Amino acid sequence: MRFAPVDSAGFLRMSVANLILFEQGVAKVATLAELQSCEAWKRAFQNKCKDHRYYEIVEDTLQGGFQFRYLVLQDDSGEVRAVQPVFFIRQNLFEGVPGKIRSIVDLVRKIFPRFLTMRVLMVGCAAGAGDLGVCDEKDEAWAANALQASLRKYARQNGASLIVLKDFPAKYRSVLETFSSKGYARIPSMPMTCLPLQYKDWDEYFRTLSKATRKDLRRKFRKAERAPKIDMQIVNDIAPYIDEAYPLYLAVHERSPLKFEMLTKNYFRAVGQRMAERARFFVWRQSGKIVAFSFCLVCDDAVYDECIGLDY
């Protein structure tokens, strides 16, 4: 019986075609299956709310033509210092364009499906903000330089015309400056908002709002009091209610003029079952019927609101 050789990173040695050499080391292109025996994969996002389990859920459950890969970044000594999720997607260049022009493009695509689309290599998370997958936070600058040195070659090898670092928060701006200095352009993404929860109760928070906002909320509260009572439930696992809740997510998703990923029922099930200690689903019912829900991830002292579903 012959055994395939295993390297110091803990997984099967890659063929030369899956290696990208750069000055500081080597990037190994791996699949999720190959990462299961890689100890560094479990350390890569250990201090992030979306740890390695979340990326596994995204690959296992997302649909829509995503091709997921992982760049295992090793230095010259053979130590794995980062594992960076990447993915390929064929991007619609007319996403969000309304009116007659969009209708014409859609008509042409019935004959030529790839008309005005582009194969794109994206770095980060297909369902959420991006993070650098370093095993030690002090290695963020090294990992950024390693990615900058290897991504163009990897994109060319796979026929991608554009490289995008998807939705990386502003905290990475200085670390990712190595990309700006090499011809990459920084483009604002959808803004993220942060609300410090330093209030002891609702009344204290309410007093911090503007007079117009307080007046508007009081009017809405009075209107709500005249309607059937709304009850809220917080659960870690949405699976028992997914058939009723999921159409509410779709209703919000379909109203958006700009779309990227579409989360699936299995995504919501998997998050609740495989990340139960972090998943929180706020479910609102009226007369026993689910009328809204919000999916959040709780990590340390922060609550991250991921998506909502509404009965319009």
Task: Summarize the model shown.
This protein is 31% helix and 25% strand. With 312 residues, it is of the alpha+beta class. It starts with 18 loop residues before the first strand and ends with a strand.
Describe it for me?
Helices cover about 30% and strands about 25% of the residues. With about 300 residues, the protein is an alpha+beta fold. The strands form two sheets. A six-stranded mixed beta sheet has the order 1-2-3-4-5-6. Strands 7-8-9-10 form a four-stranded antiparallel beta sheet. The radius of gyration is 23 Å and the shape is globular. The relative contact order is 0.11. The model is unreliable at about 1-5 (pLDDT under 50).
Element layout with pairings:
Elements: E1 19-22, E2 25-30, H1 32-35, H2 39-44, H3 52-61, E3 67-75, E4 80-92, H4 99-109, E5 117-123, H5 140-157, E6 162-165, H6 177-180, H7 202-207, H8 211-225, E7 230-235, H9 242-255, H10 265-274, E8 279-286, E9 289-299, E10 302-310
Parallel strand pairs: 5-6
Antiparallel strand pairs: 1-2, 2-3, 3-4, 4-5, 7-8, 8-9, 9-10
Helix pairs in contact: 3-10
